[in-house]
Protein backbone atom coordinates (compact mmCIF):
# COMPACT_ATOMS: atom_id res chain seq x y z
CA UNK A 1 0.00 0.00 0.00
CA UNK A 2 1.16 3.52 -0.78
CA UNK A 3 0.28 6.06 1.90
CA UNK A 4 0.77 9.80 1.69
CA UNK A 5 0.27 11.69 4.93
CA UNK A 6 -0.07 15.47 4.85
CA UNK A 7 2.28 15.71 1.88
CA UNK A 8 3.11 19.23 0.74
CA UNK A 9 5.68 20.51 -1.72
CA UNK A 10 6.69 24.14 -2.01
CA UNK A 11 9.13 25.37 -4.65
CA UNK A 12 11.25 28.31 -3.72
CA UNK A 13 11.48 30.38 -6.93
CA UNK A 14 12.82 33.84 -7.76
CA UNK A 15 9.27 35.11 -7.98
CA UNK A 16 8.32 33.62 -4.60
CA UNK A 17 7.08 30.34 -3.16
CA UNK A 18 5.04 28.04 -5.39
CA UNK A 19 2.81 25.73 -3.34
CA UNK A 20 2.59 22.90 -5.87
CA UNK A 21 1.13 20.27 -3.51
CA UNK A 22 -0.79 21.10 -0.35
CA UNK A 23 -1.56 18.72 2.50
CA UNK A 24 -2.36 15.65 0.43
CA UNK A 25 -3.51 12.50 2.20
CA UNK A 26 -3.96 9.41 0.04
CA UNK A 27 -4.01 5.66 0.40
CA UNK A 28 -3.49 3.54 -2.68
CA UNK A 29 -4.16 -0.17 -2.23
CA UNK A 30 -2.01 -2.98 -3.58
CA UNK A 31 -3.03 -4.10 -7.04
CA UNK A 32 -5.28 -1.18 -7.88
CA UNK A 33 -5.09 1.24 -10.76
CA UNK A 34 -5.34 4.67 -9.20
CA UNK A 35 -5.85 7.74 -11.37
CA UNK A 36 -4.98 11.33 -10.49
CA UNK A 37 -6.65 13.90 -12.72
CA UNK A 38 -6.38 17.67 -12.81
CA UNK A 39 -5.87 20.55 -15.18
CA UNK A 40 -2.40 21.75 -16.11
CA UNK A 41 -0.60 23.15 -13.07
CA UNK A 42 -2.83 21.33 -10.55
CA UNK A 43 0.21 19.62 -9.02
CA UNK A 44 -0.21 16.09 -10.42
CA UNK A 45 3.36 15.59 -11.64
CA UNK A 46 4.82 16.98 -8.45
CA UNK A 47 2.59 14.72 -6.36
CA UNK A 48 3.44 11.59 -8.31
CA UNK A 49 7.15 12.43 -8.11
CA UNK A 50 6.74 12.74 -4.34
CA UNK A 51 5.75 9.05 -4.26
CA UNK A 52 9.24 7.89 -5.29
CA UNK A 53 10.86 10.97 -3.81
CA UNK A 54 12.19 12.19 -7.16
CA UNK A 55 10.73 15.29 -5.56
CA UNK A 56 11.30 15.39 -1.82
CA UNK A 57 8.16 16.66 -0.03
CA UNK A 58 8.63 19.87 1.96
CA UNK A 59 6.32 18.36 4.59
CA UNK A 60 4.57 15.10 5.27
CA UNK A 61 5.36 11.42 5.06
CA UNK A 62 5.42 8.89 2.25
CA UNK A 63 5.01 5.23 3.09
CA UNK A 64 5.19 2.14 0.94
CA UNK A 65 3.90 -0.81 2.94
CA UNK A 66 5.50 -0.36 6.34
CA UNK A 67 8.56 1.55 5.12
CA UNK A 68 8.67 5.32 5.46
CA UNK A 69 10.52 6.63 2.40
CA UNK A 70 10.75 10.17 3.73
CA UNK A 71 12.96 8.91 6.57
CA UNK A 72 15.38 6.90 4.42
CA UNK A 73 18.97 7.62 3.44
CA UNK A 74 19.69 8.20 -0.27
CA UNK A 75 21.30 4.75 -0.43
CA UNK A 76 18.26 2.96 1.00
CA UNK A 77 16.03 5.04 -1.23
CA UNK A 78 17.92 3.92 -4.34
CA UNK A 79 17.08 0.32 -3.46
CA UNK A 80 13.41 1.08 -2.81
CA UNK A 81 13.15 3.01 -6.08
CA UNK A 82 14.03 -0.16 -7.98
CA UNK A 83 10.65 -1.45 -6.89
CA UNK A 84 8.91 1.65 -8.25
CA UNK A 85 8.96 1.84 -12.05
CA UNK A 86 8.06 5.04 -13.84
CA UNK A 87 7.06 6.01 -17.37
CA UNK A 88 6.75 9.49 -18.84
CA UNK A 89 4.90 11.43 -21.50
CA UNK A 90 7.96 11.71 -23.74
CA UNK A 91 9.22 8.18 -23.07
CA UNK A 92 12.76 9.25 -21.97
CA UNK A 93 14.54 6.50 -23.94
CA UNK A 94 18.27 6.61 -24.66
CA UNK A 95 18.50 7.49 -28.33
CA UNK A 96 21.91 6.00 -28.97
CA UNK A 97 20.92 2.58 -27.61
CA UNK A 98 18.77 -0.13 -29.12
CA UNK A 99 15.47 -1.28 -27.70
CA UNK A 100 17.27 -4.24 -26.11
CA UNK A 101 19.96 -2.02 -24.57
CA UNK A 102 17.37 0.41 -23.23
CA UNK A 103 15.56 -2.40 -21.43
CA UNK A 104 18.87 -3.88 -20.22
CA UNK A 105 20.00 -0.59 -18.70
CA UNK A 106 18.23 -0.83 -15.30
CA UNK A 107 19.49 -4.41 -14.95
CA UNK A 108 23.10 -3.26 -14.72
CA UNK A 109 24.50 -4.33 -11.40
CA UNK A 110 21.58 -6.71 -10.82
CA UNK A 111 23.93 -9.68 -10.63
CA UNK A 112 22.06 -11.52 -13.40
CA UNK A 113 24.16 -13.61 -15.81
CA UNK A 114 24.13 -12.74 -19.51
CA UNK A 115 21.76 -15.66 -20.18
CA UNK A 116 19.40 -14.69 -17.36
CA UNK A 117 19.40 -11.11 -18.57
CA UNK A 118 18.69 -12.23 -22.12
CA UNK A 119 15.82 -14.41 -20.96
CA UNK A 120 14.35 -11.59 -18.91
CA UNK A 121 14.57 -9.03 -21.71
CA UNK A 122 13.10 -11.47 -24.24
CA UNK A 123 10.11 -12.11 -22.00
CA UNK A 124 9.63 -8.36 -21.42
CA UNK A 125 9.78 -7.75 -25.18
CA UNK A 126 7.11 -10.41 -25.64
CA UNK A 127 4.95 -8.89 -22.93
CA UNK A 128 4.97 -5.51 -24.67
CA UNK A 129 4.62 -7.15 -28.07
CA UNK A 130 7.90 -5.88 -29.51
CA UNK A 131 9.75 -9.15 -30.02
CA UNK A 132 10.74 -8.13 -33.54
CA UNK A 133 12.12 -4.70 -32.59
CA UNK A 134 14.91 -5.58 -30.20
CA UNK A 135 17.68 -4.22 -32.44
CA UNK A 136 15.80 -1.08 -33.51
CA UNK A 137 16.76 2.37 -32.25
CA UNK A 138 14.13 4.64 -30.67
CA UNK A 139 14.17 6.93 -33.74
CA UNK A 140 12.89 3.98 -35.79
CA UNK A 141 9.84 3.46 -33.58
CA UNK A 142 6.37 5.03 -33.42
CA UNK A 143 5.26 6.84 -30.27
CA UNK A 144 3.25 3.84 -29.11
CA UNK A 145 6.21 1.51 -29.65
CA UNK A 146 8.50 3.87 -27.74
CA UNK A 147 6.09 3.84 -24.81
CA UNK A 148 6.04 0.03 -24.94
CA UNK A 149 9.84 0.01 -24.67
CA UNK A 150 9.59 2.43 -21.74
CA UNK A 151 7.07 0.12 -20.05
CA UNK A 152 9.35 -2.91 -20.57
CA UNK A 153 12.27 -0.93 -19.14
CA UNK A 154 10.19 0.17 -16.13
CA UNK A 155 9.28 -3.47 -15.46
CA UNK A 156 12.84 -4.81 -15.72
CA UNK A 157 13.44 -4.78 -11.96
CA UNK A 158 10.10 -6.46 -11.16
CA UNK A 159 8.58 -3.39 -9.51
CA UNK A 160 5.58 -3.50 -7.19
CA UNK A 161 4.41 -0.11 -8.35
CA UNK A 162 4.35 1.61 -11.73
CA UNK A 163 3.99 5.40 -11.84
CA UNK A 164 2.69 6.77 -15.14
CA UNK A 165 3.19 10.50 -15.69
CA UNK A 166 0.87 11.49 -18.58
CA UNK A 167 1.98 8.29 -20.32
CA UNK A 168 -0.55 8.58 -23.14
CA UNK A 169 -0.70 12.36 -23.59
CA UNK A 170 1.59 12.37 -26.63
CA UNK A 171 -0.26 9.54 -28.36
CA UNK A 172 -3.22 9.41 -30.75
CA UNK A 173 -6.52 7.98 -29.43
CA UNK A 174 -6.05 4.52 -30.91
CA UNK A 175 -2.48 4.15 -29.65
CA UNK A 176 -3.64 5.50 -26.27
CA UNK A 177 -6.17 2.66 -26.11
CA UNK A 178 -3.54 0.04 -26.89
CA UNK A 179 -1.16 1.40 -24.24
CA UNK A 180 -3.97 1.51 -21.65
CA UNK A 181 -4.82 -2.08 -22.54
CA UNK A 182 -1.19 -3.04 -21.99
CA UNK A 183 -1.12 -1.26 -18.62
CA UNK A 184 -4.27 -3.12 -17.59
CA UNK A 185 -2.62 -6.38 -18.64
CA UNK A 186 0.50 -5.53 -16.62
CA UNK A 187 -1.70 -4.77 -13.62
CA UNK A 188 -3.68 -8.00 -13.91
CA UNK A 189 -0.93 -10.40 -14.97
CA UNK A 190 1.85 -9.13 -12.73
CA UNK A 191 -0.26 -7.70 -9.90
CA UNK A 192 1.50 -4.35 -10.15
CA UNK A 193 -0.12 -1.31 -8.53
CA UNK A 194 -0.45 1.49 -11.07
CA UNK A 195 -0.65 5.20 -10.29
CA UNK A 196 -1.55 7.13 -13.38
CA UNK A 197 -1.77 10.88 -13.81
CA UNK A 198 -3.60 12.47 -16.68
CA UNK A 199 -5.67 15.46 -17.70
CA UNK A 200 -8.01 13.23 -19.73
CA UNK A 201 -11.11 11.80 -18.07
CA UNK A 202 -11.39 9.29 -20.92
CA UNK A 203 -8.13 7.69 -19.71
CA UNK A 204 -9.42 7.48 -16.13
CA UNK A 205 -12.69 6.02 -17.35
CA UNK A 206 -10.93 3.38 -19.41
CA UNK A 207 -8.83 1.65 -16.77
CA UNK A 208 -8.85 3.17 -13.28
CA UNK A 209 -10.44 1.61 -10.20
CA UNK A 210 -10.31 4.80 -8.16
CA UNK A 211 -9.57 8.44 -8.90
CA UNK A 212 -8.41 11.54 -7.06
CA UNK A 213 -9.18 14.94 -8.54
CA UNK A 214 -6.59 17.68 -7.96
CA UNK A 215 -7.00 21.42 -8.10
CA UNK A 216 -4.48 24.05 -6.99
CA UNK A 217 -2.28 21.49 -5.25
CA UNK A 218 -5.08 19.85 -3.28
CA UNK A 219 -7.02 16.64 -3.68
CA UNK A 220 -10.56 17.98 -3.82
CA UNK A 221 -12.42 14.75 -4.52
CA UNK A 222 -11.65 11.06 -4.36
CA UNK A 223 -13.57 7.85 -4.81
CA UNK A 224 -14.19 4.76 -6.85
CA UNK A 225 -14.66 5.49 -10.47
CA UNK A 226 -18.34 4.60 -10.71
CA UNK A 227 -19.20 6.70 -7.64
CA UNK A 228 -17.32 9.71 -9.00
CA UNK A 229 -18.92 9.42 -12.45
CA UNK A 230 -22.42 8.93 -11.00
CA UNK A 231 -22.24 11.59 -8.31
CA UNK A 232 -19.43 14.05 -8.95
CA UNK A 233 -19.24 16.66 -6.19
CA UNK A 234 -16.72 19.32 -7.20
CA UNK A 235 -17.25 21.63 -10.17
CA UNK A 236 -13.93 20.66 -11.69
CA UNK A 237 -14.92 16.96 -11.54
CA UNK A 238 -18.20 17.75 -13.28
CA UNK A 239 -16.30 19.70 -15.93
CA UNK A 240 -13.95 16.76 -16.54
CA UNK A 241 -16.87 14.35 -16.85
CA UNK A 242 -18.57 16.69 -19.30
CA UNK A 243 -15.53 16.35 -21.57
CA UNK A 244 -16.30 12.66 -22.03
CA UNK A 245 -19.85 13.27 -23.21
CA UNK A 246 -21.62 15.51 -25.71
CA UNK A 247 -24.72 15.72 -23.56
CA UNK A 248 -24.11 19.28 -22.37
CA UNK A 249 -24.53 20.36 -26.02
CA UNK A 250 -28.27 20.16 -25.37
CA UNK A 251 -28.16 23.36 -23.29
CA UNK A 252 -26.58 25.27 -26.18
CA UNK A 253 -29.06 23.73 -28.61
CA UNK A 254 -31.98 24.94 -26.49
CA UNK A 255 -30.45 28.43 -26.27
CA UNK A 256 -29.78 28.51 -30.01
CA UNK A 257 -33.34 27.35 -30.77
CA UNK A 258 -32.06 24.33 -32.70
CA UNK A 259 -34.69 22.57 -34.82
CA UNK A 260 -34.06 19.38 -32.84
CA UNK A 261 -35.44 21.02 -29.72
CA UNK A 262 -38.62 22.40 -31.31
CA UNK A 263 -41.74 21.20 -29.52
CA UNK A 264 -45.38 20.76 -30.45
CA UNK A 265 -48.11 21.66 -27.95
CA UNK A 266 -48.16 19.27 -25.01
CA UNK A 267 -44.54 18.18 -25.45
CA UNK A 268 -41.72 18.39 -22.88
CA UNK A 269 -38.01 18.31 -23.70
CA UNK A 270 -36.38 16.37 -20.90
CA UNK A 271 -32.89 15.20 -19.90
CA UNK A 272 -32.80 11.89 -18.06
CA UNK A 273 -29.75 10.86 -16.09
CA UNK A 274 -29.54 7.32 -14.89
CA UNK A 275 -26.97 4.91 -13.56
CA UNK A 276 -26.38 1.22 -13.08
CA UNK A 277 -29.07 1.00 -10.43
CA UNK A 278 -31.89 1.88 -12.75
CA UNK A 279 -30.79 0.76 -16.21
CA UNK A 280 -32.15 -2.69 -15.46
CA UNK A 281 -35.76 -1.43 -15.46
CA UNK A 282 -37.58 -0.84 -18.72
CA UNK A 283 -38.69 2.63 -17.60
CA UNK A 284 -39.27 4.12 -21.03
CA UNK A 285 -41.65 1.38 -22.08
CA UNK A 286 -43.32 1.42 -18.65
CA UNK A 287 -44.17 5.13 -18.85
CA UNK A 288 -45.51 4.61 -22.33
CA UNK A 289 -47.70 1.69 -21.24
CA UNK A 290 -48.79 2.90 -17.79
CA UNK A 291 -48.88 6.68 -18.25
CA UNK A 292 -49.64 6.95 -21.98
CA UNK A 293 -46.60 9.14 -22.51
CA UNK A 294 -44.86 8.96 -25.92
CA UNK A 295 -41.09 9.16 -25.82
CA UNK A 296 -38.98 10.34 -28.70
CA UNK A 297 -35.25 9.91 -28.05
CA UNK A 298 -33.27 12.87 -29.42
CA UNK A 299 -29.82 11.76 -28.40
CA UNK A 300 -27.97 10.13 -25.57
CA UNK A 301 -24.67 9.21 -24.09
CA UNK A 302 -24.21 5.93 -22.32
CA UNK A 303 -20.90 5.05 -20.72
CA UNK A 304 -19.76 1.66 -19.60
CA UNK A 305 -17.72 2.16 -16.45
CA UNK A 306 -16.38 -0.85 -14.63
CA UNK A 307 -18.92 -2.94 -16.54
CA UNK A 308 -21.84 -0.74 -15.42
CA UNK A 309 -23.80 1.38 -17.86
CA UNK A 310 -24.58 4.94 -16.85
CA UNK A 311 -25.50 7.95 -18.84
CA UNK A 312 -27.94 10.53 -20.09
CA UNK A 313 -30.76 10.58 -22.57
CA UNK A 314 -32.40 13.65 -24.05
CA UNK A 315 -35.99 12.86 -24.95
CA UNK A 316 -39.24 14.53 -25.91
CA UNK A 317 -42.22 13.41 -23.87
CA UNK A 318 -45.62 13.84 -25.48
CA UNK A 319 -49.06 13.42 -23.92
CA UNK A 320 -51.39 14.95 -21.37
CA UNK A 321 -49.62 17.34 -18.98
CA UNK A 322 -50.79 15.41 -15.93
CA UNK A 323 -49.65 12.09 -17.42
CA UNK A 324 -46.22 13.54 -18.16
CA UNK A 325 -45.93 14.85 -14.60
CA UNK A 326 -46.90 11.44 -13.22
CA UNK A 327 -44.40 9.74 -15.52
CA UNK A 328 -41.64 12.10 -14.34
CA UNK A 329 -42.53 11.42 -10.69
CA UNK A 330 -42.41 7.68 -11.44
CA UNK A 331 -38.95 7.98 -13.00
CA UNK A 332 -37.66 10.05 -10.09
CA UNK A 333 -38.98 7.41 -7.72
CA UNK A 334 -36.72 4.97 -9.59
CA UNK A 335 -33.66 7.20 -9.12
CA UNK A 336 -33.62 8.71 -12.59
CA UNK A 337 -32.67 12.37 -12.40
CA UNK A 338 -35.10 14.26 -14.55
CA UNK A 339 -34.50 17.77 -15.81
CA UNK A 340 -37.21 19.48 -17.84
CA UNK A 341 -35.36 21.69 -20.31
CA UNK A 342 -38.33 23.14 -22.15
CA UNK A 343 -42.09 22.65 -22.38
CA UNK A 344 -44.78 23.76 -24.77
N1 LIG B 1 10.81 22.49 -10.24
C1 LIG B 1 9.89 23.44 -10.09
N2 LIG B 1 10.22 24.68 -9.71
C2 LIG B 1 9.29 25.63 -9.53
N3 LIG B 1 7.96 25.43 -9.71
C3 LIG B 1 7.58 24.23 -10.11
C4 LIG B 1 8.50 23.16 -10.34
N4 LIG B 1 7.81 22.07 -10.73
C5 LIG B 1 6.51 22.43 -10.77
N5 LIG B 1 6.36 23.72 -10.40
C6 LIG B 1 5.10 24.46 -10.29
O1 LIG B 1 4.22 23.71 -9.47
C7 LIG B 1 2.90 23.79 -9.94
C8 LIG B 1 2.38 22.37 -10.19
O2 LIG B 1 3.10 21.82 -11.30
P1 LIG B 1 2.92 20.33 -11.79
O3 LIG B 1 3.82 20.12 -12.97
O4 LIG B 1 3.05 19.41 -10.64
O5 LIG B 1 1.40 20.33 -12.27
P2 LIG B 1 0.64 19.34 -13.23
O6 LIG B 1 -0.74 19.21 -12.70
O7 LIG B 1 1.42 18.10 -13.38
O8 LIG B 1 0.62 20.15 -14.58
P3 LIG B 1 1.04 19.69 -16.05
O9 LIG B 1 0.00 18.68 -16.46
O10 LIG B 1 0.99 20.95 -16.85
O11 LIG B 1 2.42 19.11 -15.92
C9 LIG B 1 2.93 24.65 -11.17
O12 LIG B 1 2.57 25.95 -10.80
C10 LIG B 1 4.36 24.59 -11.62
O13 LIG B 1 4.73 25.75 -12.30
UniProtKB/TrEMBL annotation:
Signal peptide: none
Gene3D superfamilies: 3.30.70.260, P-loop containing nucleotide triphosphate hydrolases (3.40.50.300)
Protein name per its UniProtKB record: D-methionine transport system ATP-binding protein
This protein's record includes keyword Transit peptide: no
Keywords noted in UniProt: Amino-acid transport, ATP-binding, Cell membrane, Membrane, Nucleotide-binding, Translocase, Transport
Family, similarity comment: Belongs to the ABC transporter superfamily.
A Pfam family that the UniProt record links to this protein: ABC_tran
Residue stretches making up the ABC transporter domain: 2-241
GO molecular-function terms, A-Z: ATP binding; ATP hydrolysis activity
Gene Ontology process terms (BP): amino acid transport
One Gene Ontology cellular component: plasma membrane
Amino acid sequence: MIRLEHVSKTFDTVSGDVHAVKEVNLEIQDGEIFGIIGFSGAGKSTLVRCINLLERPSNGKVWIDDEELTKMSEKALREVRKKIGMIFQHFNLMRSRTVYQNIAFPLKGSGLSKEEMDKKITSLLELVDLGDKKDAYPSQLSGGQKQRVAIARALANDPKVLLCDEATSALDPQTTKSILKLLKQVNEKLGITIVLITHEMAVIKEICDRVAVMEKGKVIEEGNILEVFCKPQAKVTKDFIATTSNISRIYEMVDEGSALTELKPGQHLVKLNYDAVNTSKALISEISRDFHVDTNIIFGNVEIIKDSPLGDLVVIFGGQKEDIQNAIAYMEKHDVKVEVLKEC
